[in-house]
Amino acid sequence: MNMKSISRTFFAVAAVSFLVASCDVENKKTIYAPAGTDEAVTFLSSVSVDTEIDAKANTFDITVARSKSDAAATVKISSTMPEGITVPGSVSFAVGESETKLSLDISKMEVGKSYKGTISLAEETAYDKNISTSTVTCTFAKAYTWVSLGQGEWYDGLALQLSDDDLGIIKVEVLKADGFNRWRIMEPYPKANVIAAWGEDYYVGGASSYIEFYTLDEAAGTIKFDSKIYNGLNYSNKGKIVYQYPSSYNSGYAERDAYNKFIGEYVQFYVPRLIEGTTSWFNFGALYLAMPGAGDLATWLNEE
284: helix, coil or strand? Predict the structure, then answer.
């Protein structure tokens, strides 16, 4: 590649039209072209950070610029990005193009996982080391977009039930990940409700702010949750009460995983109820969610 000049005007325009697709790009390098006759290829930023990429996205674009656009050109690229992100080995400019997109394949990125690495102009690429930004340090993560479905009802006969006549059912907001069969039950253990059922002495806080679950087998209606569920209780100062997915607690309970499922518009969570850090527990028990728009949960439980 012949080396020609980068004009001040070109990079002034390039800086204004900064198009790196990122929610939070930091440490943008000032590109300064001294008088001379060198041509250069460059990234428009030394850092690209986006930790809120739409979970449904399959590509992510980074802008590459050049000073001379009178001919088509291909620029070789190298990368240290981890598995889950595929970076092309080159990027091409068409005749007349001063900017082009390096399109990363992010279809295999896991949601919620952080991906860090670098993308660089390959060593054999001709660029002015004194002028060009030759490497972009990247931090990427996908995130779900949560949409409220409205108010559902939540029942926990251990942590919330007041009496045989009062099941302690509470209203909860239910969110759904846009485009995915994944839900969140928000604030399932309000302090006032747990204390009403157990008294002040048993409440220690630390209750789960939400319970996130997702479809495991759509045909069977089975669901799974990955995180432990805390209700804010400490049983007789022996340890916090915690619920787990059966096989996550003990592989010997794998056959009970199937009891975690949708039953029409209601969801059953069948869990071992444990005292954390001990061998003591309350055996298995069921928690129930009535999805927004379902019938009255108390009536349904009595029918079941």
Answer: strand
Closest-CA residue to 120 (of 83, 97, 88, 92): 88
Q: Maximum CA pair distance of the chain?
A: 87
* CA 50 to each of CA 112, 116, 142: distance values in angstroms, whole numbers, following the listed order: 12, 11, 8
CA 46 to chain centre: 24
Contact assessment for residue 260 and residue 269, using Cβ atoms and an 8 Å cutoff = yes
**CA 258 – CA 224 distance, rounded (Å):** 9
Which of 17-21, 223-227, 246-250 shows the lowest mean pLDDT across its residues?
17-21
Determine the average pLDDT of the residues in 105-123: 95
Average pLDDT over residues 13-17: 33
For the stretch 269-302, what's the b/e string if a residue is b when 16 or more beta carbons lie within 10 angstroms of its beta carbon?
bbbbbbbbeeeebeeebbbbbbbbeeeebeebbe
pLDDT over threshold 90, residue 279 = no
Contact (CB, 8 A) for 211 and 229: yes
- Cβ neighbors of 207 (< 8 A, separation 6 or more) are 188, 189, 191, 194, 230, 231, 232
How many angstroms separate the CA atoms of 246 and 242, rounded? 12
For the entire predicted model, the pTM comes to 0.78
**How far is CA 118 from each of CA 99, 122, 187, 189, 284, rounded to the nearest angstrom?**
20, 12, 39, 43, 48
Q: Going by C-beta distance under 8 Å and a sequence separation of 6 or more, which residues neighbour residue 279?
A: none
pLDDT tens digits for range 174-218: 999 999 999 999 999 999 999 999 999 999 999 999 999 999 999
23-65 tens-digit pLDDT: 444 433 333 333 333 468 999 999 999 999 999 999 999 999 9
DSSP letter assigned to residue 107:
T
Name beta bridge partners: 115: 140
Element containing residue 184 per DSSP (H, E): strand 182-186
